[in-house]
Amino acid sequence: MRALVLLTLLTLACAASAADSLSVAQQLYQAGAPQLAYARVVREQPEKSEIAGWYDWESLRLTLLSDTHRPAEIIERAKHYPQNAPREFQQKTLGHAAWAHLELQQGVAARALLAQLIWRFELNPADHQWARRLVIRSYLIEHKADEAYRAMLRYQQDFQPLPKEVAAEFAQGLLREERATEAMTWLAELDPTSPATLALLMKVGLIAPDAAIAQARAALQKQPTATAYATLIADGADMLKDNRMQVGALEQLLGLPATAEQTEAQLWRAYLKEAQTLGNRAQLLQGDDASWLELALRTETSDALGARSLFAYVAQHGVSIGVRETALSRLYAALLNAPLEEAAVRLFNAAPWGEKVSIAQLQRLIARAADGLPQPAARKLYFSAGRILEARQDAIGAADFYAQAVLKSDLRAPDLLATQALQRAVAMLERVGFKDDAVQFYRSAISQKEPTKKAPPAKLGKRKK
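Given the sequence above, the corresponding structure tokens read:
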């Protein structure tokens, strides 16, 4: 059913006329297809702000840039808005730009915009409180715990009674800064059953880490996307010095929303530590890459977590580029098989081993990982590679990988992955101006009778102005 809905949206996107284009873009966004909506905005929005309706288009663009997590683009566009823009639009711009600076860990710039937002505009109560909480967050991302704590106290004075979710936000922020004593200020305000309360009690020693972890795991069974509980498990494992448990918790954590920026680096350090433990146990020598890889391959079935750790170790410490790429490709495939796709995408974009993966290297990694796999399994590799490049704003590269995932699918009975790959391939092509190619590829794909065994090279036409 979900696949049918997405195919219907694709038909709508390809067939709509320019006259109702903004309405179609809004419908696509509301229906859960932000990539297609953004591609339409990029293609159809009037170029000049003086044209009627431009600010409606631009307002939707800001929303889509936020939802698809492109903070750098928000900041760049905000630099060029007319000074005589409608006041309501100016207010929205300041809010989005402040959020964007926070996403890029730029606390000072965010506070400068938030000051304008708070003092220049008569914000409604909800927007005012949201802006004040962003100020607090700006201090926390700069690790200015004292300033954040004082701002929290002022916030509590100004907005009584303090909602439990805000108290939890304050407590968790201070806990991340290792300021459990200050976080205790809000213990009485917290929901006794909340993850913030459980984490706080664990940090101050009022509940044992293993007991807190057990409660968090039980809660995750009911709330599988609760980032705070997954974070608690990772922190508790660290307190218990249980590295294997921490590796598993951090891998799961990377698949959840609002995960802390440093999680990828934490996971990589835990991988290396676990690999060294396994290597020492097997009496492996540093530099003996063949033995390290052989151990990883031998343990993939019996100890998948250990194998991923060993692949990570060789990916960083392998003697030759070829060995390191082999290990990276195996790690990539192992994460997808786990299944930990979101962890793979985030880890390979962060590249905590120190060498950011180039497009050419990514193509080699995918080819190595896909070697010998049946097409239904291989397409997962290509789809996730598309996500990696999409996160880097490389629409052409992402479109190529998504297209290969589509061409390895059977669209006679499309599953969710096939339909999402088709949706994203079309959106990426439209975003960079290849409207005709997007329509042609879509029509070709939905008329497909059986999986294509080998993807032909992409032939893109001239970019539409």
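The domain at 159-241 is CATH 1.25.40 (Serine Threonine Protein Phosphatase 5, Tetratricopeptide repeat). Try to locate this feature in the token string yourself.
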